[in-house]
Design a protein that fits this description.
Low-confidence stretches: 1-23
Shape: globular
Distance between the termini: 26 Å
Strand content: 5-15%
Bound molecules: heme C
Mean pLDDT: 91
Strand order of the largest sheet: 1-3-2
Order of helices and strands: HHEHHEEHEEHHEEHHHHEHHEHEEEEHEH
Radius of gyration: 22 Å
Largest sheet: 3 strands, antiparallel
Structural class: alpha+beta
């Protein structure tokens, strides 16, 4: 309701010819409103039939369909109730027109990965840290009587994604104009283990993605999500205006506020320590808001290097000569792929909500980000996103440490619930900047971060 009134006020402001000016980018309000709808549009022709949704439970080893089926379905795969009317389907599911006929097929949209639930609040723009995309795809395909051979894993550890690899893999089947071609193969890394960044950071970032490799002014850099083979070159390119709207929408997003009590005096102490120890990379907040957009070299950050080394030079070169990279700024300047060789220090607005932390989601709380010796080596969590999973003291997600890696005889869906930091792409080392703080100082910084 509130949202609608806000929307109307914004539309009126826009109609008067005014635009809301953000700190870093102006927001085009009508475009942002259209973009809000566009992130829920199908990315591809249907993958599955609607029947597969209704019958997936037959793959769960149950004798009969669970009574509260929609909820059971969401819990099994790490999906969330939609915040809008979605025909009874979970957030992230769409009903594209396509080969299977209007309305009978299912596909996905951006929100499959870019909406999540934390401390009992479902938030659009929060990375989905509960999703097991591998099980979702395999079991829905099986319910349709298919057994597709997946060329790449879609998910190695629940809550992480191999999303960048779809684009890299699928570009092999496209020429520079995005026309289909016989694949020109390049080596692929199968352990990206990417944590999905929060969309509300987009407005601050000059470069995006964990590696800081794309200019945030570019629209086309958001479009490789459309590369699935069923989309023609033309059908991808003609969606550029829609993605300009999506970009405007991303620029309009604000971080969610910490929902529990904050010890303001302690947070004030933490602010002083933060200014001393962290500002140079993460920027400052509040009145003196400033984000340095710093790309920190691997030798300095020391976090898992797999993602930074994942992309073969021939794949990168192919992307850079393709339609995606042929976009120019208002003054005719090209949007080069920038950065590489390290990880971008992200803005920390709304950081309370975005656990687990680091680019691979290997650290469950902010406290552990700031004390590397205490980080759990092998752990699991409830994936419920409710208040019980939320750790207010250490700020992040409660977890259970396990003595060993999961037994290989367990079903893969259960093994993926265990985060094993000894596995490739999942290392939890590095970012040791909080290690020298005393326990009191560390807790004060954690308290301060709740206020951002
Ligand atoms: C299959 C899951 C998935 C889907 C679907 C998806 N994304 Fe993402 N997205 C990711 C992952 C994972 C990353 C992090 C990649 C990285 O930085 O290496 C990401 C990163 C981004 C970023 C960069 C954020 C930042 O701060 O660096 C933007 C913007 C984004 N996605 C927009 C979109 C849009 C728009 C759509 C729909 C058209 C979409 N995504 C669909 C998984 C997904
Ligand atoms: C030298 C630069 C640098 C300094 C100093 C630094 N950080 Fe970071 N920080 C980074 C980078 C780079 C990342 C991302 C690393 C990765 O994902 O591999 C990061 C990640 C984080 C994250 C996780 C963000 C997320 O979304 O997962 C938090 C929280 C954080 N830093 C807090 C702090 C605090 C608090 C301090 C001060 C005690 C601090 N950092 C000091 C560079 C720095």
């Amino acid at each position: 309701m509130c949202d609608r009134i806000m929307g109307e006020i914004l539309m009126i402001v826009a109609a008067l010819g005014l635009v809301a000016a953000g700190e870093h980018h102006p927001v085009n309000v009508p475009a942002a409103e259209r973009g809000r709808e566009s992130v829920r549009k199908p990315l591809n022709p249907p993958f599955w039939s609607l029947r597969a949704y209704q019958e997936a439970w037959k793959r769960w080893g149950l004798a009969k369909k669970p009574a509260d089926y929609d909820r059971a379905f969401r819990a099994r795969y790490g999906l969330h109730p939609p915040l809008y009317e979605n025909g009874g389907l979970p957030m992230g599911f769409t009903r594209p027109r396509g080969l299977l006929g209007l309305g009978q097929g299912l596909g996905n949209d951006c929100l499959l990965c870019h909406a999540g639930t934390v401390a009992g609040q479902t938030i659009i723009g929060l990375g989905n840290s509960a999703l097991d995309m591998q099980s979702l795809y395999e079991e829905l395909a099986a319910a349709d009587g298919l057994d597709p051979i997946m060329p790449l894993p879609l998910c190695n550890a629940r809550g992480t994604s191999e999303a960048s690899n779809f684009a890299v893999y699928l570009m092999q089947f496209r020429d520079a104009e995005l026309r289909h071609r016989l694949p020109v193969k390049y080596p692929l890394c199968e352990n990206l283990c990417e944590d999905v960044p929060a969309w509300w950071h987009f407005r601050k970032k000059k470069t995006i993605y964990h590696l800081g490799v794309a200019d945030s002014r570019s629209v086309r850099t958001l479009m490789p999500f459309l590369l699935i083979l069923g989309n023609s070159a033309e059908s991808i390119k003609e969606r550029e205006p829609e993605f300009a709207d999506i970009r405007a929408y991303l620029l309009s997003l604000e971080p969610p506020r910490y929902p529990y009590a904050i010890d303001r005096a302690l947070a004030e102490q933490g602010k002083a320590i933060f200014e001393h120890t962290c500002v140079r990379c993460h920027g400052s907040y509040g009145a003196e808001d400033r984000y340095p957009n710093k790309l920190v070299p691997l030798e300095v950050i020391g976090t898992d290097a797999t993602l930074a080394h994942a992309f073969a030079p021939e794949g990168v070169a192919h992307y850079l000569e393709s339609w995606f990279a042929r976009e120019h700024g208002p003054a005719g300047e090209p949007y080069h792929g920038l950065g590489g060789g390290g990880y971008q220090a992200p803005p920390l607005d709304g950081i309370w909500a975005t656990a687990p932390y680091l680019h691979n989601g290997s650290v469950p709380t902010i406290y552990h980000v700031l004390k590397s010796s205490e980080r759990p080596r092998i752990f699991t969590r409830s994936f419920r996103g409710d208040a019980l999973e939320y750790d207010q003291r250490r700020v992040g997600l409660k977890f259970q440490t396990l003595p060993n890696a999961p037994d290989p005889s367990l079903p893969a869906i259960d093994r993926r619930k265990v985060y094993d930091t000894t596995q490739p792409g999942r290392g939890n080392r590095g970012h040791t900047f909080g290690d020298r703080l005393t326990e009191e100082e560390r807790m004060a910084v954690v308290e301060y971060l709740k206020t951002l």
